[in-house]
Amino acid sequence: MLTVNADTLSKQITEIYRAWGMAEDVIEITVRNMVEADLRGIDSHGAGMLPTYNLRRKNGVMIPTGELTVVREFAATALLDAGNALGHYATTKAMEMACDRAKEFGVGVVTVRRSNHYGAAGVYSTMAADRGMIGMCMTGSSQPAVLPTFAKEPRFSTNPIAVAAPGLKNEHFSLDMATSTVAVGKLNIARRAGKEIPLGWASDETGTPTTDPVAALNAVPKRLSPIGGSRELGSHKGYGLGLVVEILCSVLSGSYTGATDMMTKEQGETLNIGHFCLAIDPNAFREEGEFEAHMDALMDWMRDTPPLDPAQPVLVPGDPEHEARKIRVAEGIPMTDTLVKEVREVAEEAGAPLLIGN
Fold first, then answer.
1. How many CB atoms lie within 10 A of CB 325?
2. N or C: which end of the chain has fewer CB within 10 A?
3. Mind spelling out the 3-state secondary structure of 203-222?
4. Based on C-alpha coordinates, what's the Rg of the chain?
5. CATH value at residue 15
6. How far apart are the C-alpha atoms of 45 and 28, rounded to whole Å?
7. How far apart are CA 238 and CA 317, in angstroms?
């Protein structure tokens, strides 16, 4: 295990993206969002995605130099086209635009089409909270990987939902959750660490639940469980939430579902992932400061709930990420030997300088 400070990791990813020909302003935002995910402890959506991004670049489904364009604008809404580039830059601009619209209209909604993986959804929802707003961000995905309730084949993917809201004295409420039991990246984390996964996370090629992350990753397509795991435990709810994300991200923007064009049922030449950003200005509904004070009261009330185990207090969504960030800013970001090797391989292939693991 190697611990790398955020600046060094940022420089390493920056050099890789420069070698790929990405524009400097796109690199800055993309690297910042990726490293922010790592700082928050969301290791599955930060630097760990570099090997996947590199593979998609070589396959031609992700275009590092793709340009962002505005397709439609109307009142509090807009539709952006990411040009098949990585989704970090486009979604940052989409959330900024949604917040600007919310300041004017009380609410702003911006969708993105023809995009790619954009990292951790919570990075974007908290951008709105940083501006004193409620933020919501969702994304479709690149591959069918989640089993609908009663199904033996997957139809859509992990379809995350992120919601953030500001307080006055508390750090942001920040929910960032997949609508599957876990994200695919969690399987990769277990693989790199040489650990088993809990039964119920995923199934193997035959559809049999497995504790082997390699067997789960080798299943084509992957077979993750929706939240709930089984019908008896409420998987229809996770399945339903996943479809809500699909409607807002893919249907609304005209994007694909798991890289499949729903109108033809054919695989597309690109991934055409869709994103959804929503911002709400609380001052359109309440006097200035009232919403934030109410949020503080709500979060405090949750944390004051008597715990079952005194050693494990009741938390509010975002607490683990806030704590991880404090630790990692001070001590660095832990990277497994496998991840360091994979990042170095991507850098070497691109002809970029090697700045970690030397």
1. 17
2. C
3. ECCCCCEECCHHHHHHCCCC
4. 20
5. 1.10.1530.10
6. 17
7. 18
Report angle CA 349, 354, 355 to the nearest 5 degrees: 145
3-state secondary structure of 124: helix
Number of domains in the chain: 3
Give the model confidence (pLDDT) of 200-259 as tens digits: 888 888 878 889 999 999 998 899 989 987 788 888 999 999 999 999 999 999 999 999
Q: Are residues 21 and 96 in the same domain?
A: no
| Residue recorded with tokens 């993309």 | 30
**Which pTM value belongs to this model?**
0.93
Place of tokens 């004017």: 104
From the number of C-beta atoms within 10 Å of its C-beta (0-12, 13-18, 19+), residue 293 rates as middle
Rounded Cα distance between 357 and 138, Å, is: 34
146 is in which domain, residue-wise? 66-178+233-304
Amino acid identity at 174: S
Residue 336 CA, chain-centre distance (Å), reads 21
Handedness of CA 134, 140, 146, 148 (dihedral sign): positive
